[in-house]
Amino acid sequence: MPTVNRTYNAWTTRLLAEWLALNLPLASVQNEVKLGPLDTSGITGVSASIAAGVASNKRSRADAIGWDANTIYLFEAKPKLDGAALGQIENYLRLLPGTPEIQSLMGRTVRAIILVAVDDGAVHAEAAARGIEVVVYHPAWWDATVTRVQAQQAENVAQLAPGAPGVGRVSVRQNVGIVRG
Predict the structure, then answer these.
(1) Is the pTM of the predicted complex or chain greater than 0.70?
(2) Distance between CA 170 and CA 181 in Å, rounded?
(3) Which DSSP state fits 159?
(4) Do residues 87 and 125 make contact, with C-beta atoms less than 8 angstroms apart?
(5) Which of 68, 144, 178, 181 has CB atoms 3.0–4.6 Å from 173's, for a disulfide?
(6) What DSSP assignment string belongs to 1-41?
(7) What CA–CA distance (Å, rounded) separates 72 from 94?
(8) Which residues 6+ apart lie within 8 Å of 22 measured at CB?
(9) Residues 145, 115, 104, CA angle at the centre, nearest 5°?
(10) Would you call 158 helix, strand, or coil by DSSP?
(11) Are the C-beta atoms of 163 and 179 separated by less than 8 Å?
(12) What's the CA gap between 24 and 68, in Å, rounded?
């Protein structure tokens, strides 16, 4: 399976951290958990520990895993619920039993939870039909953050327009030679 660069989103990290603190304050939690077996086949010419490290970095990562005496909580956090989140958490459920680092937790009930700020009714219904919980957590700061970031993105795009001044700095288009300064 090819590895792609993961896109991190500080909004969903904050969303997840807040929700966990409010709803599972006594659970143990680990963020960015690599899931699945370590497959070192095809990694040659290096020590076993380096091969294991390379193999580990190719594994899927759940946003978080929490656990208490009876339950493992498997989390994927997204700004808006979509089918990709559903596919990701289903993949995590498949990989969880083969993850060597968490074998001591196995045997507990597993709750797969997709945490979102914005719901999608159709995907929500499909998740429920598949036994996956969808939790909508839309804190007060969410809308202000989205508005601020969208305004910054619009400003960045405007600076790329031909003839845009670059607002006191050399624009990206000038740096790569698309337009002259």
Answers:
(1) yes
(2) 7
(3) H
(4) no
(5) 178
(6) ----PPPP-HHHHHHHHHHHHHH-TTSEEEEEEEES----T
(7) 14
(8) none
(9) 130
(10) helix
(11) yes
(12) 9
Each residue's pLDDT tens digit, 91-139: 999 999 999 989 999 999 999 999 999 999 999 999 999 999 999 999 9
Amino acid at 3: T
Going from the C-alpha of 130 to that of each of 32, 33, 170, the distances in angstroms are 24, 23, 51
Strands 60-67 and 28-35: antiparallel
Query: How would you label 55-70 residue by residue, b for 16+ Cβ within 10 Å and e otherwise?
Result: beeebbbbbbbbbeee
Q: Which one, of 116, 114, 113, lies nearest residue 138 by Cα? A: 116
If pLDDT is split at 50, 70 and 90, which confidence band does 142 have? confident
CB 96 within 8 A of CB 102: yes
User: Using CA atoms, how far apart are residues 150 and 148, in angstroms rounded to an integer?
Assistant: 6
pLDDT mean across residues, the chain: 83
- Among 62, 47, 69, smallest CA distance to 132 is for 62
d(C-alpha 52, C-alpha 163), whole Å: 51
Q: What is the DSSP string of 87-144?
A: HHHHHHHHHGGG-GGGGGGTTSEEEEEEEEEE--HHHHHHHHHTT-EEEE---THHHH
